[in-house]
Amino acid sequence: MRGLEIRELECFLVLSEELHFGRTGERLYISQSRVSQLLRALERRVGTRLVARTSRHVRLTAAGEEFLASLRPAYDALVSAVEQARAAAHGTARRIRIGFQGAIYEEITRAITAFQARHPECRVDIAEIPLSDPFGALRRETVDAAVVLLPVEEPDLHLGPVFSEQQQRLAVSVRHPFAQRARLDAEDLARVCLIPLTGPAPEYWKRVHSPQVTPKGRPIPQEGGVQTLQEGLTLIAAGRGAMLLCGSTAEYNRRRDIAFVPVGGLPMSALGLIWPRSGESAHLKAFAAEISDSIS
Fold first, then answer.
1. How many domains does the chain have?
2. Degrees to nearest 5, angle at CA 293 with 73 and 267
3. Which CA distances in Å does 102 have to 181, 186, 227, 253?
4. C-alpha closest to that of 26 among 287, 276, 286
5. 1, part of any domain
6. Between 20 and 30 A from 63 (CA), which of 90, 136, 248, 280?
7. Is residue 211 assigned to a domain?
8. How many whole angstroms separate alpha carbon 122 and alpha carbon 116?
């Protein structure tokens, strides 16, 4: 079709995911009115309505669903072709850099293995990111995506697959009285000194992983501070305090001098794959799909 605009197709694809004109504009860094303009232009080209919009809901029409099913693989193939050509022009293989907090989890290793088998032209590199700074490496562009502890409320970051939802664990020295308990309640945290995370993580994130009060409002003592998991584990083993960790991190960091005790009454911990909304690529989406497959 002569005069076809890639931007119109990109707008439709993002809108089909968000089903919200405002969020679509945020992801594409354009105004909501521009989203409407691009959609109308595309609908004129195909000769039918692709999106039905009311004051409360946005949904794809039957024609829109059919168009999406045809467009998505074709668009991803086009993006992949451009990325491979760019890599060839620079004489380097395409790479995806994945950051992780604390440990490489089983779901991720399975996804990496499956992705490399299906996409030998793209290499997956891994890098550890500080426990106390889940989003900084993405914004500094030292990684392309990251597996981080939830919650994630950053408007510039896209949350992909969520996995490993488990009860939080309190990591304490085996010499601490709590080490002999089979389970703790959130109110018990008022009786232990937590080691806070002191990095640039947003406050809403710290409130989950380094709370200052119990659910009933009792203050939780805090002392010192760490930025990495290994710093925290060293202090815990020395009897200098305790930390809340997700279940997966506890499993991957078992050691004889630390006990990991489940804590009830707190939000469940979970991990998610995130990446910048402006940095989506066909390879990154394919990697996210592999993670989804590995946890299904």
1. 3
2. 120
3. 25, 23, 11, 9
4. 276
5. no
6. 280
7. yes
8. 7
More confident residue, 118 or 218: 218
Mean pLDDT computed over every residue of the chain = 88
Is the separation of the CB atoms in 244 and 194 below 8 Å?
Answer: yes
Q: 122 lies in a domain? A: yes
CB 192 within 8 A of CB 259: no
Tell me what pLDDT residue 29 has.
83
Contacts of 67 (CB under 8 A, 6+ apart): 12, 46, 50
More confident residue, 12 or 28: 12
Q: How many CA atoms lie within 13 A of 159 on its CB side?
A: 14
Query: Mean pLDDT across the stretch 247-254?
Result: 84
246, 100 contact by CB (below 8 A)? no
**286: containing domain:** 93-160+271-295
When pLDDT is cut at 50, 70 and 90, the band that residue 79 belongs to is confident
Over range 69-76, report the average pLDDT.
85
**pLDDT surpasses 70 at 1:** no
Name the token pair of 266: 């707190």
Secondary structure E strands in 177-292 = 184-185, 243-245, 258-264, 269-276
Amino acid at 66: E
Reduced to 3 states (helix: H, G, I; strand: E, B; else coil), residue 8 is helix
pLDDT of residue 97: 92
- Give 195's pLDDT tier (boundaries 50, 70, 90): very high
